[in-house]
Amino acid sequence: MKVCERMRLPFEVAFQIIENVYRGSSNMNELINDRARNGGSALKNKTEFLLAVYELEELGLLFRYRSNDGIRYSRSEKGEAFYHRYREMKQEDWPDFLAGQEGISP
Q: What Pfam families does this protein map onto (predicted)?
């Protein structure tokens, strides 16, 4: 079963993760620390947050790679397009949830 079939990721959380990765490649600890600095999220716990990151990877918005520093995350071309599209849009116009390919196509 795919991750996106198990949970409905709040759109705001998806955008926030992608925005944080935009600031530079990130490892999982940096993404989790960003979550804590930003006052948490609509997700109940760290496990749900990790599943959200994996879901974004599965949807092709983030990609994972190995570097000298270990496993890192960066934004894919699709993730860049997603970020730039929704960065310009008013937050109240965003969908409530990121489900499957919903809200991703230009």
A: DUF3116
